[in-house]
Specification:
This protein is α+β, with helices and mostly antiparallel strands and 137 residues long. It has three helices and six strands. The longest helix is centred in the middle third of the chain and has 18 residues. It is globular. The two termini are 12 Å apart.
């Protein structure tokens, strides 16, 4: 299988406002390669680019964005095999993150790394999640 950028359909509400960012920063939202879908880090921003104040809401938006990329690829959250989440102020935000995460991620759980960091691309952002899903045969 060759590498293929996941094309987001025109007019997709979740990502329409982000198309310029993909070009400006030189990255793809997701790439299919060798039986996997590699999803770029998704921050906890709403489709209009604004960020909710709560970590729970940012976590939900991050996971909704991942869920939408999976849907476009014909997959769902159960196809995730590896996830990495990045957390600003991890000591205080992790409980709220975990509560929101459990609304989306069910058994069997993917492999998951949780990493504390000093900051993200904008100061109001507290969560970024990247993921890998197995493509279906």
């Amino acid at each position: 299988m060759t590498t293929e950028v996941l094309e987001i359909p025109p007019g997709n509400e979740m990502f329409e406002g982000y198309r310029a960012a993909f070009e400006r920063y030189g990255f793809s939202p997701a790439v299919k390669s060798k039986g996997f879908l590699f999803i770029s880090g998704q921050v906890g921003a709403r489709p209009d680019g604004s960020a909710p104040e709560s970590v729970a809401d940012q976590t939900e938006w991050s996971l909704k964005r991942i869920e939408e990329l999976l849907r476009i690829a014909g997959l769902d959250l159960q196809d995730l095999v590896e996830v990495t989440s990045y957390h600003v102020d991890i000591e205080t935000t992790l409980p709220e993150f975990m509560e929101a995460k459990h609304k989306f991620i069910k058994k069997p759980f993917p492999a998951w790394s949780i990493i504390g960091i000093s900051g993200l691309s904008r100061p109001e952002l507290k969560i970024e999640i990247r993921a890998v899903a197995a493509l279906r045969d």
